[in-house]
Specification:
The chain has about 400 residues and is of the alpha+beta class. It is about 50% helix and about 15% strand. The strands form 3 sheets. A 4-stranded antiparallel sheet has the order 2-3-7-6, with no helix packed on it. The structure holds flavin-adenine dinucleotide (FAD).
Length: about 400
């Protein structure tokens, strides 16, 4: 007898129901307003914190699930409610992942809770990697980190681009070049504590979708952080740099890439939530809407579209769940399984939301119905945390063993 099962266990089902209720009762009804306002939805994040849905304890409890599924299940429900608000609730998780992935246990204990704060004082985290001239090519970061031995401080200078929660966060995790000649192998991650002088918000971007989520430049002008803010510690960094100088490789992954790899199934789950919202809405619409004297779903062209939408969503979910299970069980992504899950789910979300507009016809194209918003929101999943092309690059390098350029 095998204990293999694809059923959710009781805890997971309870979690899904709980997050779904919040998404349906609180997030969905607020989605249109915050999309139009294009502002960070503080009251909704506060409500999430009040019930324990926003907070490091929530993340820690669910990341502890040995199947790896709890967190992706929760994210799918959250983003089913709304992607912009979902990212406002989930965005701090990327900074927390950057700290957990690169920090010492003491650093994780000190800084991760501060990425969330408490229900009485909600805080945010931001993970700052991308720059105006370094998005996909994270090895070319220009932001510099220079060590000041006299004061045991690191001095950070540079500009970060498209940062979720950038400038409004309490904790900024900044990836910077310590030795630019070593490219990605010469980088390190730093925590910039709340209120540090020299860190400011640059332009706030006006976006195509996920408008409730705050995206800004972050300017670092002679930002001084204590030595203990270097994630992983100086000794480990010095060893890594020495190895890299000797061999041209440290044998370790770049800090930013390690974080992104670990969070890719979570981004796939975000895309699934949006795709499922559009699918469910258009299925109901197709059963109601009459044309030529019958519901439009009675046309095979519409019914088959919905059949394909559902099939694609379920296929993407299996990839997301597999990658989440692998990550939780420390299985190496030998074929780029994390990238596969994000690639497939992101592309499915764009395709499904476009089909949903088609099913709603003229109504689907207007802002009176939510499907056009879901379509705008879905597009981000083929761009951030590694574009679809970069995911294909990761997968092709993994399956071929070749350094495909
Ligand atoms: C809303 C939003 C939120 C974001 N949040 C964050 C955040 O919190 N933190 C953070 O650090 N970054 C964040 N980003 C940045 C995001 O990760 C980058 O935009 C993304 O990695 C792409 O980089 P780029 O925009 O410079 O595109 P480019 O790298 O200039 O790519 C442009 C095009 O060229 C393609 N391309 C590039 N190189 C290759 C190649 N080798 N092979 C094939 N095709 C290639 C790309 O796929 C893309 O289609 C966010 C971006 C957005 C829009």
């Amino acid at each position: 007898m095998s204990d293999y099962s694809l059923d959710l266990n009781e805890d997971q089902q309870t979690l899904v129901d709980w997050v779904h209720t919040f998404a349906a009762d609180v997030i969905r009804p607020a989605a249109e307003e915050w999309d139009e306002r294009e502002e960070f939805p503080w009251p909704i994040v506060q409500e999430a914190a009040n019930i324990g849905l926003y907070g490091w304890e929530f993340m820690a409890a669910n990341l502890g699930d040995p199947t790896g599924l709890s967190i992706v299940l929760a994210i799918e429900e959250l983003f089913w409610g709304d992607a912009g608000i979902g990212l406002s609730i989930f965005g701090s998780g990327l900074a927390a992942a950057g700290i957990s992935g690169n920090g010492t246990p003491e650093q994780v204990m000190e800084w991760v809770p501060q990425c969330y704060g408490t229900a009485d004082k909600v805080q945010l985290g931001a993970f700052c990697v991308s720059e105006p001239d370094a998005g996909s090519d994270v090895s070319s970061l220009r932001t510099r980190a220079v060590y000041d031995e006299k004061t045991d401080e690191w001095v950070l200078n540079g500009t970060k681009a498209w940062i979720t929660n950038g400038g409004i966060a309490d904790i900024h995790v900044v990836v910077a070049a310590v030795d630019p000649e070593l490219k990605g192998r010469g980088q390190a991650s730093f925590v910039v504590p709340p209120g540090t002088k020299g860190l400011s918000m640059g332009q706030k971007y006006k976006k195509h979708g996920i408008k409730a989520s705050h995206t800004s430049e972050v300017v670092l002008d002679d930002v001084r952080v204590p030595g203990r803010c270097l994630l992983g510690g100086k000794e480990k960094l010095d060893e890594k740099l020495a190895r890299a100088r000797e061999s041209g490789s440290s044998g370790q992954k770049q800090p930013a890439m390690a974080t992104f790899e670990a969070t890719r199934p979570a981004v796939g789950a975000q895309a699934l939530g949006v795709a499922r919202a559009a699918y469910e809405y258009s299925l109901e619409y197709a059963k109601e809407r009459q044309a030529f004297g019958r519901p439009i779903i009675m046309n095979q062209s519409i019914a088959f579209k919905l059949a394909d939408m559902k099939t694609e969503i379920d296929a993407a979910r299996l990839l997301v769940h597999r990658a989440a299970w692998m990550a939780a069980n420390r299985k190496e992504f030998k074929a780029g399984e994390g990238s596969m899950s994000k690639l497939k789910a992101g592309e499915v979300a764009v395709w499904v939301t476009e089909q949903a507009i088609q099913i709603l016809g003229g109504y689907g194209y207007t802002r009176e119905y939510p499907v056009e918003r879901w379509h705008r929101d879905a597009k981000i999943f083929t761009i951030f945390e590694g574009t679809s092309e970069i995911q294909r690059l990761v997968i092709s390098r993994n399956i071929s063993g070749l350094r495909i350029p």
